[in-house]
Amino acid sequence: MSDTRKLTPAPSxxxxxxxxxxxxxxxxxxxxxxxxxxxxxLDVDAxxxxxxxxxxxxxxxxxxQFGVDGRRTLVLLLLLFAIPADGCSAQTPPPPLDEHAFExxxxxxxxxxxxxxxxxxxxxxxxxxxxxxVREAVGEGTIQHQGDAGDSIYWLCYRRAQxxxxxxxxxxxxxPDHLVTEIVEELTENDTETSTDCAIIPEKFAPLVFDGKxxxxxxxxxxxxxxxxxxxxxxxxxxxxxxxxxxxxxxxxAWLILRFREDRLVSMRGGKTTTN
Length: 276
What we know:
By secondary structure, the protein is of the alpha+beta class.
């Protein structure tokens, strides 16, 4: 039986190369925009529309006529679309929370804490200030994301000289507005240890201060004078823990994990969450 179907001639090698280059160009443009922080996600619809336009221009009506090179291009497209939105512009995530930091730590702090923070003249509040507001005020940085469900976090990463700073939002507690739930700042021993993939924060947004009184560089005695006795104290670390019930019946948990080097505060991690 003869095959009477009308076949569209396969494009020439030059035509296939032009088509492939056109698709690559659109993909790489999207990746570059995302890496530069101009967009958060690849505009898949726009790239597919451009690809469709290129297909039509080349009169390709059947994927088989695209040849081996064409199929490889399509596979590459699928792989690129599968890359997480933050995969190509990922910055150093916040240091993981020490699982042992809260072991045998009673919530001895009665007074509410870790309620506010400031970056220079910029004032924010935990569970009230969105990451976007910090990003807009500083004028630098890209909101990053990793993890799913309870492990999901969003963050901004900054560096200044020997300082590293992460402003973090829990994916669940921070909600769709990505409200700040935790901040981490570390003072490294030399500039080479800072995360060079993080944005440089202008000097005017220093120092980071918790509750108007806690900042890096303080001595151990100064910290105790400002905050009172810690819930747990070790040679190089102090932990402050607070738990309380708010007027609306919600439970509030706040924490400060402070690390010292040669009697100076060189790392502080503070945060607050409210649950029902």
